[in-house]
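Cross-check.
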Amino acid sequence: MMTDAEIRERMAERLLAAQSPWGRTRLTLYVRRKRMAWNAVTGFARAIKRAFDIVVAAGAIVMFSPVFLFLALAVKLDGGPVFFRQTRYGLNGREFKMLKFRSMCVDAEARLKDLLDRNEKKEGITFKMKDDPRITKIGRIIRKTSLDEMPQFWNVLVGEMSIVGPRPPVRREVELYEQRHRRRFNVKPGITCLWQVGEREGGLFEIGDRNSIDFEEQVELDVRYIESQSFWKDIWLLIKTVPAILFGKGA
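Predicted model, tokenized:
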């Protein structure tokens, strides 16, 4: 591997050579070759990730279809529509409708403004409240077990989300974003991510309480994932999501 000094010397040589017509042509060809190689590598990685998303999402929808039907019936008997469709922001800041099994009363969005002063998240961008009065009886159960998130496999299947990636924010959050927070929009949003399983230190078997992670740290962890994502990391995060839910770390 070349040292920093050797890299700087190599670049200086190329810049000097580029001062001649032939040198400029060689430099242009070099840059194009490097760009094509990079596009090929990143394109292949995106294709692998998309294939992984389709296989997992389709498999989950088929495998858990009896669970879906049971939950749909339970939510319906609780009163109101089965699904909650909410505008979220994904890749490049594009809007899409994220699906959940409804766990709150039908006027939950309208009642939020009256509860903002009881927000437990000190930064005020995301909202978290213990014993939120908007949550229904069945809603408390499915939120505790994250079963309300299962319809998002459909969002993954149609390409709006990924299995692993930053959680998609709502409009109120995006309106409070600073520029550095928008780096989350560089990839598709996901169902699970580093802070969802409480992985803060990068430990292989690390699982923690996501509720103790504030917004700024969530962004830091999302950026860390974006800069180091890999196929095997996605698989491992998906696996770690199961014990995170079972042991109440995502409650």
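The radius of gyration is 22 Å. The mean pLDDT is 85. Passed to J.P. for a second look.
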